[in-house]
Design brief:
Elements (H helix, E strand, L loop, with lengths): L16 E5 L3 H14 L3 E6 H7 L2 H13 L5 E8 L2 H10 L3 E4 L6 H17 L3 E5 L18 H11 L3 E3 L17 H10 L4 E3 L7 H10 L1 E6 L1 H17 L6 H22 L11
Parallel strand pairs: 1-2, 1-8, 2-3, 3-4, 4-5, 5-6, 6-7, 7-8
């Protein structure tokens, strides 16, 4: 099944779209395996930090694209938290169907201008663009979990930039290892009513399952998850190495991590009521 545009997999309200961050090839393989097990579309995300880890976008980007093309379910390749318009152009040139351009550290007017320019260029290429007004919590301490996006500001930003999706601050924070985030569900409902494009929940690893399901019910669409998969991966690798101290073949322990991530992806897709899109997944 070929890679698909983001617009082809965005579900109706009340259903979620799982978007999971890739760090290495095993992550991409595991995320697709979990989506195939669940029988639903999925988003493979490559962050700017992941690009820095690999030294360039092309090696991991091509791996993600190849993994997506071989999947039995619809897959979107997404560039996450790109602060450089140049990196966005590179991703579009490689074949990514979606990008998040993150100009949130700029003053508001500069954010709007830069994001609008990127959105216009990507629209001409048929590429979906996600953005945000201000940083989601957990980056350089700019926003604490109590930060909130104003619905009026969000609606104005979406209109001014022409973006296709909007990441909003409703109580989450990136990189959380505990699952005790308290989401502002009434705010999510107000944002969903005010903003004409799908809403994106970043920092979802810190959100309990019941709250994730409630967030989708109240109007969240794209659910970004990274840290929770890394916990599952690392835990399985640790367990395998502890059980077999003499093990030296990376396939034996990295494979255990891959299997653990696939199981967690399938479980999370059920939690957010991911949509099979009328049988498109085969």
């Amino acid at each position: 099944m070929p890679l698909v545009p983001m617009a082809d997999v965005v579900p109706a309200r009340g259903r979620g779209l799982g978007a999971f961050n890739v760090i290495q090839l095993e992550h991409a393989e595991a995320i697709v395996a979990g989506a195939e097990r669940a029988g639903v579309p999925v988003v493979l995300q490559v962050s700017e930090n992941c690009v820095a880890y690999h030294g360039a976008l092309a090696p991991i980007g091509q791996a993600v694209l190849a993994t997506g093309r071989a999947a039995a379910v619809p897959v979107v390749a997404h560039l996450d938290h790109a602060t450089s318009a140049g990196l966005v152009r590179e991703a579009v040139g490689l074949g990514f169907g979606s990008v998040m351009f993150d100009a949130s550290r700029l003053p508001h007017e500069a954010n709007v201008a830069a994001t609008a320019e990127v959105a216009a260029r990507c629209r001409a290429e048929g590429v979906w663009v996600e953005a945000e007004l201000g940083e989601i919590g957990g980056k350089d301490g700019v926003h604490a979990p109590h930060a909130r996006t104003d619905p009026g500001d969000a609606a104005g930003y979406a209109a001014a930039t022409g973006v296709d999706a909007l990441a909003v601050a409703v109580g989450t924070s990136h990189g959380m290892l505990t699952r005790d985030t308290v989401l502002d569900l009434p705010l999510i409902a107000r944002l969903a009513a005010a903003v004409p494009v799908p809403l994106v929940l970043h920092g979802s690893s810190g959100v309990p399952d019941a709250a994730l399901a409630a967030a989708v019910e109240h109007g969240m669409t794209k659910i970004n998850i990274a840290t929770r998969l890394n916990e599952a991966y690392t835990g399985a690798v640790r367990d395998r190495l502890a059980a077999e101290p003499a093990l030296v073949d990376p396939r034996r322990y990295l494979g255990a991590g891959r299997d653990a991530v696939a199981a967690e992806v399938a479980r999370l897709l059920a939690v957010i009521r991911a949509d099979a899109r009328d049988g498109q997944t085969g």
